[in-house]
UniProtKB/TrEMBL annotation:
Stated name of the protein: 17362_t:CDS:1
Domain F-box: 1-55
Keyword Repeat found: yes
PROSITE patterns reported for this sequence: FBOX, WD_REPEATS_1, WD_REPEATS_2, WD_REPEATS_REGION
This protein's UniProt keywords: Repeat, WD repeat
Residues in WD repeats: 145-179, 204-246, 292-334
Ranges in coiled-coil conformation: none
Cited Pfam families: F-box, WD40
Transmembrane segments: none
Superkingdom of origin organism: Eukaryota
Length: 458
């Protein structure tokens, strides 16, 4: 048998890159040397290749073996990711209502990172911190503060020292530091229903109407981008709060997002003939791109993914999600529920799938990102018209509200409606879910495939 250890290390890495998870596990059983190689590099390479972002270990295992588990325990991370992947295939998940709102929120939004979930409810920001050893399990101590004089329209997590930005209908943008909220511990039960008095670090004024959306590149914290119903795009200096550049937009804007930090590309979805306007960021200006022409429908939401830097997704008025390649500026695939034409209000994606929030009935549509209808295999044995790769949908209870905002990673989907925020968790063992069902604020959540069989027409 040829010893793999006689090869140069870069060749060894390329060999490990070609192995499946079953082959990696089997290779560990050969001898101690192979076991050490797999533990140090094999699982890490597999985890990285699968693009499983924001993955943490099982909290019950971590508590029992806290001394042996660390951030570099790739074996445990791969196990977590593999279970999650199987649950996605089987459409197995737990559904939990994180919070319910009193009344109706005009423009609810949410954002989350590894540490916290942020929800805007009217002019307040609500914060839920995740437990240290259990991602997306909360400590149930909600913290909230009044952010603006009118409804909050967008939230931006900057990733720097608990800093966030908020925009509002009151035409302002504010910068906040949440460190005081994190450090403020109070165990009185009625404390968490009271708003905390937090003072903004900076306030940005200049827009004449509602600031609809804001964005900042993670590698460029000095520049903040905003769009407003006054049909302008502004660039702000985050240190001086001064507007450095103002550009007139072709129509009323909906959303602004960075589409590629590699190419410094920004996209603006707007109500105009263009529907989607792209700008390249230069040191002193924004250069409008003419590479995408005639987008077929108004863009309500945009999403990009750091693990897939050459792609971005649009959610559109015509109910279609479109996947674009930044290198060619071409739409390479489109996805739509063939029996539901409601507009897409919110969209996000990971390395495997797209999640799209519909404008009615609390529906989230799920599509396989790797599937392109142009390459549909007609020999799959599927009935005519009932295509099994058209995806499936999640029906969030008896609710007629649009899914105004959603965000996903490999194992979770968070979605906000007009009166509640949901968490859909694909990472837990189903038996564990049933045993702890009484602990969940659970509401019926159904799923169905996009096929005529579900409609009784198959």
């Amino acid at each position: 048998m040829v010893m793999i250890f006689n090869f140069p290390f870069d060749i060894i890495v390329n060999i490990l890159n070609l192995l499946t998870i079953q082959e990696i596990v089997q290779l560990r059983l050969v001898n101690k040397s192979y076991n050490k190689l797999i533990k140090e590099y094999g699982f890490k390479l597999y985890f990285t290749n699968q693009k499983w972002n924001i993955i943490l270990s099982d909290p019950t295992i971590e508590k029992r073996h806290s001394s042996s588990l660390s951030a570099d325990n790739w074996q445990q991370k791969v196990s977590f990711g593999y279970i999650t992947q199987q649950n996605w295939k089987k459409k197995k998940f737990s559904s939990t209502v994180v919070t319910k709102y009193h009344g109706q929120s005009l423009i609810p939004k949410l954002k989350f990172d590894k540490e916290k979930l942020l929800c805007c409810v009217e002019n307040f920001i609500e914060i839920y911190y995740f437990n240290k050893y259990s991602y997306a399990d909360f400590n149930h101590r909600k913290k909230r503060f009044m952010a603006h004089n009118n409804d909050v329209t967008d939230i931006l997590i900057s990733g720097r020292n608990d800093e966030i930005y908020t925009s509002s209908v009151d035409s302002t943008i504010k910068k906040w530091n949440l460190k005081k909220l994190r450090n403020n511990i109070n165990y009185r039960q009625d404390y968490y229903s009271r708003p905390y008095n937090l003072t903004p670090k900076k306030t940005f004024k200049g827009h004449k109407k509602s600031v609809q959306s804001i964005y900042m590149f993670t590698n460029d914290p000095l520049n903040l981008y905003s769009i407003s119903f006054d049909e302008t795009l502004r660039i702000w200096n985050t240190e001086t709060t001064q507007s450095q550049l103002e550009i007139q937009l072709p129509g009323r804007p909906r959303v602004i997002r960075g589409l590629s930090s590699k190419n410094n590309l920004i996209g603006v979805g707007n109500r105009s003939k263009e529907h989607l306007t792209l700008y390249y960021v230069t040191p002193n200006d924004l250069v409008k791109s003419t590479e995408i022409k005639g987008h077929q429908s108004t863009v309500y939401d945009l999403a990009s993914n750091q693990n897939l830097p050459n792609t971005f997704v649009t959610g559109c008025y015509d109910g279609v999600c479109r996947l674009f390649d930044v290198r060619t500026m071409q739409c390479v695939a489109s996805y739509r529920d063939p029996y539901d034409y409601h507009p897409v209000f919110s969209v996000d994606y990971d390395a495997y799938r797209i999640a799209a929030g519909a404008s009615r009935n609390g529906i989230i549509r799920i599509f396989d990102l790797r599937y392109n209808k142009n390459h549909y295999n007609i020999h799959q044995g599927v009935k005519k018209g009932a295509r099994n790769n058209d995806g499936w949908s999640l029906y969030l209870g008896n609710n007629r509200s649009p899914v105004y905002s959603l965000q996903m990673d490999h194992s979770k989907i968070f979605a906000t409606l007009s009166n509640m925020t949901w968490m859909l968790d694909f990472s837990k063992d189903i038996k564990h879910q049933r045993q702890n069902h009484h602990k969940m604020n659970d509401v019926s959540c159904l799923h169905y495939t996009h096929s005529k069989k579900w409609l009784g027409l198959g």
